[in-house]
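quick one
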Amino acid sequence: MIITEQKEFQEILHSLEGHESVFLIGCGICATTWGTGGEKETREMAARLTEAGKECSGWIVTEEATCDARTTRRSLKRNKEQVEPADALLVLSCGAGVQTVASLVEDIPTYPALNTLFLARIQNLSVCDERCRLCGACILAETAAICPVTLCPKGLMNGPCGGYEDGKCEVDRERDCAWVAIYERMEALGQREQFMVIHEPKDWREDRHPGFINKRAEKALG
Ligand code: SF4
Ligand code: SF4
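structure w/ iron/sulfur cluster:
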């Protein structure tokens, strides 16, 4: 899940300076689950903006993820009577969702209400932890399904480094050393010999940005 946090209200107001009428768009998937841009938060944001002197022409929460242009296009079309009078759109989703809305509504400026933080495992509705840095060449098959690229602050491909102590990381003693965790899991799975495998340096050319995929074109090329 993509983790987001709400921006300071003053920053949002600053973005909206010079705009009188705002239409708000929340995200039906990640920001709803994480409580940053679901129905409750979008409604509350609309109320705060109204209190701050803005006119809210309306709000929606997209039926799916806001970054899904197919369903967001549909949601915006269905609400076009409220979208069109607005002179600004405020999106409570990750940055991909904000840009999806901006690409669908080219004639109204679009602004983010959230900061996009990381890709995480949700432990419960108040605790999540980053689990993947989207490196483009997953090595979890070799690391007992624990990601050192994300969980080791040095991103070591062969660890642990000399600084770990009592299973904790030298960079942050509150956190478990990723490589100790990998070793312990391998041992528990009866795969300890895998720990002796030396991993090649990571090929960061696989970490391509901006990412782009066209499955149909790839299929046509065979
Ligand atoms: S190895 Fe790369 S793709 Fe796999 S979990 Fe780690 S960062 Fe994500
Ligand atoms: S102690 Fe472990 S997690 Fe921390 S930097 Fe060293 S190898 Fe990485």
